[in-house]
Automatic annotation (TrEMBL):
Residue ranges occupied by any CBS domain in the UniProt entry: 159-216, 224-281
Keywords: CBS domain
Protein name: Nucleotidyltransferase substrate binding domain-containing protein
PROSITE patterns the UniProt entry points to: CBS (PS51371), CNMP_BINDING_3 (PS50042)
InterPro entries, per the entry: CBS_dom, CBS_dom_sf, cNMP-bd_dom, cNMP-bd_dom_sf, Diverse_CBS-Domain, DUF294_put_nucleoTrafse_sb-bd, GlnD_Uridyltrans_N, RmlC-like_jellyroll
Species annotation: Thiorhodococcus fuscus
Length: 622
């Protein structure tokens, strides 16, 4: 075969969907192609092309824009343009234009139709958009064998195996204990007619009755928990587990479609399906009496991450579980510090930042935190809060959550300030978006309170979001700053790798993959004044208020979950092998299909970055 034809065949074989074709079919294909060249700015695809063709980009770039001129996509090496081969060609509502001199291979639509008819896997590519391919790839990733038995797929309705055991608020504690004993249950729902009034558990009987010396003839309303979090029948088992973990509870009432009580879900029900034990780790953390005990418990977090990934968890599942554990460790360290130092002299809030604030942690990342003090704080109170901050920061470091390299921690006096000082900080960052201010904004606009009994943070956050939402220059600077982290996709649609050093022939899947989406979500959130911190929740909220299209949000969420889940699986492999988890992934670790989907995700992120840049005219602020 001619050398040029061999080169074309090798090119096609390395790009989807042609990599799905048998070798003998690929060998015949280059002779059926013609080569076309389009100047920058020329008409594409040409309306007078005969016969109508599918175009395969070999070199160059083509932009896709909607009728309003908004950028909605970009084609690069290996991408396809099949406008002329579509049955609904008249319904296409975008235009394409080469933005660089572009070389393409043209395959007649009749030839394409024949290939689709003969090869199912090849045909599926044309029946799905990039977003659909990502969604399907993500669905495949989270399927756990045997099908339907893991907490990632089973619903709460499938775990409820008995009607709820109930009583009413005026039942005596003794009678309630007898009912629980007769039915062999560890909890009892308390009903007022059709309304769920509360719940009592074995722990309530021990702690609120026996230990407190309360007479057993008192009504259960005196010891029941009345503020309950419930789940519905369609909730996935893993989401129920996360809710239990975050709240440190072992029982959740289950409501049906009519919001009536249908049953009670226990942690025992969950462990019948999967032995993920984050809810028990949190329970152990709350009972820990020393930093040493917390260190021992924390050592189990990498093992938990491996277990969750093996069971089919996505990055969101892992992030929620690990962050709940870190929250619990942080809160217990605060409690131990207060037990040693005494009650705080004035109200305060312990704030966390970074991946913990967004509930997107993997095992043992570094710590970002701060102290927000009441404006009642006086200079003589400083030694107390300095000691508290040092105890908690040192404890987190001992537990594997290392000191922040940038010293963004409560032990740094700069990040241990009264409310009015924090308010000034944010005003300065918003009004004077200098490089350092932008860097700090990326940290502090993700803050979330772990301990805040006086709700100090809510007051600060409300003011900050109002100022950021109305300051368009600040948002433009934040958008320009967000575009500095680009996906590692080169000119020829290849993944750009690190060369040399300890991470030779890898790429940073966190800073070049998930961080660009985190940055985009933050800008969408700030521009709309939204209070969410979790990236997925920010994108969903941005779509609901119109700051981002619903399709754009859904596609970014799928890209975020797909890339993040690849990252979690990479780390789990390292942990299983006894190594230390990092974010440097070698493409050789991925299957050809995963590499193709990863490139799809990177292309979509790049498109959304360019769209954001044009919307906020970020070139003026770079």
């Amino acid at each position: 075969m001619d050398i040029e034809l061999i080169e074309i065949q090798e090119f096609l074989a390395s790009h989807p969907p042609f990599d799905q074709l048998p070798e003998e079919t690929l060998a015949r294909l280059p002779k059926r192609l013609s080569i076309r060249y389009f100047r920058r700015g020329s008409d594409f695809p040409p309306d007078d092309e005969t016969p109508a063709c599918l175009y395969i980009l070999r070199k160059g770039a083509i932009e896709l824009r909607d009728p309003q001129g908004e950028l909605i996509g970009k084609l690069a090496e290996g991408d396809l343009c099949d406008i002329h081969c579509r049955a609904n060609r008249d319904e296409i509502d975008y235009r394409a234009s080469p933005v660089e001199d572009t070389l393409v291979y043209a395959l007649p639509c009749d030839e394409l139709t024949q290939l689709r008819r003969e090869h199912t896997a090849f045909a599926e590519h044309f029946e799905q958009s990039i977003s659909n391919r990502l969604r399907k790839a993500l669905d495949v990733m989270i399927e756990t064998p045997p099908a339907g038995t893991g907490l990632m797929t089973v619903k709460v309705r499938d775990m409820i195996n008995r009607a709820p055991i109930t009583t009413h608020p005026d039942t005596s504690i003794r009678e309630a204990a007898t009912i629980m004993s007769e039915h062999h249950v560890s909890s009892l729902l308390v009903m007022e007619g059709e309304r769920l009034a509360g719940m009592i558990t074995d722990r309530d009987l021990r702690n609120r009755c026996v230990a407190a010396g309360l007479p057993t003839d008192r009504p259960v309303r005196d010891i029941m928990t009345s503020e309950l979090t419930s789940v519905d029948m369609e909730t996935l088992g893993f989401q129920a587990l996360i809710t239990m973990t975050r709240l440190n509870v072992h029982h959740l009432p289950v409501l049906d479609d009519d919001k009536q009580v249908a049953g009670l879900l226990s942690s025992t029900d969950l462990t019948r399906f999967q032995s993920a034990n984050s809810v028990y780790l949190v329970g152990d953390i709350h009972r820990a009496d020393s930093v040493e005990t917390l260190v021992q418990i924390s050592s189990k977090v990498p093992e938990l991450q491996v277990h969750l990934v093996t069971a089919g968890a996505t990055s969101n599942h892992v992030g929620q579980a690990v962050s709940a554990i870190t929250d619990a460790i942080t809160l217990r360290l605060i409690e131990l510090a207060e037990a040693d130092l005494g009650a705080p002299p004035v109200p305060y809030a312990w704030l966390v930042g970074g991946s913990q604030a967004r509930r997107e942690q993997s095992s043992h990342s570094d710590q970002d935190n701060a102290l927000l003090l009441s404006d009642l704080a006086k200079p003589e109170h400083e030694p107390y809060f300095a000691a508290l901050a040092k105890f908690v920061n040192d404890g987190l470091n001992a537990c594997g959550f290392i000191y922040c390299p940038g010293d963004v921690m409560a032990s740094n006096p700069k990040w241990r300030q009264p409310l009015h000082i924090w308010n000034k900080y944010f005003v300065n960052w918003i009004l004077k978006p200098e490089p350092m201010a932008l860097m700090l904004s990326s940290v502090f606009f993700d803050l979330r309170p772990v301990r805040d009994p006086e709700h100090l943070f809510g007051e600060l956050q409300e003011r900050v979001l109002q100022r950021s939402r109305t300051n368009r220059i600040f948002i433009a600077y934040m958008a320009a700053n967000a575009l500095k982290n680009r996906p590692p996709l080169g000119f020829f649609r290849n993944i750009v790798l690190i060369h040399g050093g300890d991470h030779d022939h890898t790429f940073d899947i966190k800073h070049r993959g998930t961080v660009p989406i985190i940055d985009l979500a933050r800008v969408y959130s700030l521009s709309a004044g939204l209070s969410e911190t979790n990236t997925i929740e920010r994108l969903q909220a941005a779509a609901e208020c119109g700051a981002l299209s619903k399709d754009g949000a859904a596609n970014l969420i799928d890209a975020f979950e797909f890339i993040g889940t690849l990252r979690m699986r990479h780390q789990a492999r390292q942990l299983r092998q006894g190594g230390k988890a990092n974010n440097f992934l070698a493409p050789d670790e991925l299957s050809p299909l995963e590499r193709g989907h990863l490139k799809d995700a990177f292309l979509y992120i790049n498109t959304m970055q360019e769209s954001l840049g044009q919307r906020h005219q970020t070139g003026r602020f770079a």
